[in-house]
Amino acid sequence: MAKAPRNRILAGLDIGSSKITCFIAELDEFFNPHVLGYGQHASNGLKRGNIVDMDKTEMAIREAVHAAEDMAGVEITGVIVAIGGVHLRSHMTDGLVVLNQQDISDADIFKVIDVARARQLEGDRQIVHAQATKYVLDNQTDIRDPRGMTGSRLEADVHIISAATSALRNVVRCVERANLEVQDIVVQPYASALATLVADERELGVALVDMGGGTSDIAIYADGALVYTAVIPVGGAHVTADIARGLSTPLSAAERIKVLHGCAMASTISKDDEIDVPSVGEDAKDTVHITKSALAGIIQPRCEELLELVRDRIEASGFENAIGRRVVLTGGGSQLQGLRQLAEVVLDKSVRVARPTGVQGLSDLSGAPQFSTAVGLLIYGARQAAQQQRSRGREGSLMSWLGSVGKMLKLAN
Q1: Do 146 and 137 form a contact (C-beta atoms < 8 A)?
Q2: Could you tell me the pTM of the whole model?
Q3: Which of 9, 216, 248, 294 is the residue whose CA sits 20 to 30 A from 163?
Q4: Maximum Cα interatomic distance, the chain, rounded to a whole number of Å
């Protein structure tokens, strides 16, 4: 297996509650990622996005990475990691810097964001993302990008996403124990949004709901910027557990029944077939029968609970009016039959189910909604690589210009 050149290969590692996924991609000359391989492994060491067993999590990371490396035919040394969990927090703050009536540069942008970052965080927390949503230059408001403008006072509204320091350290430690370098950290709802939302949705306002195994993530965009994120401690695994308890069947059988026959809204069932349900325990060889509508009677209350929690979080965010009537669902839980229709009723909004896009080389399997976060990591990494290249190009142009000026001065003397 060949070691890949660091500047052309990207690897994204999504550490989820139900599975750990690794995607490997190669960047072309225009910094567009092309998927080379992917792998996944069941995640038994996490609960609600938090690591509860380091050894099991490390093993799952190794297995997922090895599977991706075997498919891609390359060996990776570092990964961009997606983290989630109920410990994530989102809030808006602001920053201000005084300028010298000079053209605003990248350095000024970084400075005003750093001022916002410097505000005291509650408890033992660490900032994962700090993104300006809009700027005010002197008396001019709602500026998207002030670079190149001139003024004396630059303000910015900044969206801060923070994580519990201990949870963050545990994730980094697990990845390092698998002999991988953590190149960057991205929160799961942001990564999923990068892979699923189209430009018009981000501009007009939208709420993305990524339904995972142990948690569901919310990302709200308004006027083209990410303005709010949240994590709800309910996911597809809770539906599976309800089926297992309600039918007295093993969890593995409950998951299979949910995927093959489950429906989130009984009224959408067109044919009420009977389903064979294996029993648990000493009567494991016995099989009982249940209709699809009776199964939906178990599934629908939990899905309604989840969607009501999503509705409450959107209302509490203060951005409900900004998103209008648009909600996008993704993640493995979004594929449940009837869920889109139920979401439209509970949320009273227009709903679509999204698959990841924006990356070349995705197949029907690798492009499934449960891989939205992993694909979003590749998009994030590609954008960071392109930005670094542009920065190096500007620095090179400046140094070249300074060198030319130096030569001219020497000739003049």
Answers
A1: yes
A2: 0.90
A3: 9
A4: 99
Closest of 240, 180, 248, 192 to residue 213, by C-alpha? 240
**Other Cβ atoms closer than 10 A to 179:** 11
Alpha-carbon separation of residue 171 from 57, 85, 229 (angstroms)? 9, 11, 20
| CA–centroid distance for 286 within its chain | 42
Q: What are phi and psi of 347, to 5 degrees?
A: -85, -15
CA dihedral over 312, 305, 160, 370, signed as positive or negative = negative
Mean pLDDT by 10 residues, the chain (413 residues): 65 93 94 95 85 93 96 95 93 91 87 87 84 91 89 92 93 95 96 96 96 94 95 94 94 93 90 86 72 94 97 95 94 95 96 95 93 97 87 55 46 42
CATH 3.30.420.40 fits 1-88+163-196+356-413, yes or no: yes
Residue 34 makes CB contacts below 8 A (sequence gap 6+) with 25, 26, 27, 28, 359, 360, 361
Per domain, the residue ranges of the chain are 1-88+163-196+356-413, 89-162, 236-302
**CATH class of the region 89-162:** alpha beta
- CA 97 to chain centroid, in Å, comes to 31
